[in-house]
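Title: Prediction job returns without error message
Component: structure pipeline
Severity: low
Priority: P3
Assignee: unassigned

Description:
Job completed but the reporter wants confirmation the result is attached to the right record. Sequence as submitted:
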Amino acid sequence: AINWAAVNGRTEVVRILAEAGADLNTRDNYGDTAIIRAADMGHTEVVRILAEAGADLNIRDIDKRTALMLASKRGHPDTVRVLIEAGADIDIVDKFGNTALVYAGETGMWEEAYLMMKLSREHTNEECKQFLVRSEPEQYDHCWDCGEDDDTETE
């Protein structure tokens, strides 16, 4: 029931079920949990409720992706910020070798990607280079953590 409510953005139903003690990490027929489904759909308030109720923020789907990765991949910046603020691990790598930072960069969420880059314990120079080359140069031209610069020419 909670997974159905989460994927359909039924905020009040999710809140009632969470308060009643529903298993927040139960998996549906696809192996997904409520927070994974809600993040994938961009249901930010549902994600916030689940996070505050104690859902596992770093639980993974069958492709080893987390809610943060899916929100990043689908381009849901508000959901990404809620997950980061709630303490989601930004350094987890999925079965394809990608992190939430990579997905955020691919969908053009520069502010969120830069935030992840600053918070990441393990970002690589290659991730920085990919991000910096694609981002808006006047905003993000240098990674203060690893020292990577955007050395591309702009016109």
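Comment from assignee: result matches the submitted record. Residues 63 and 95 are 6 Å apart (CA to CA).
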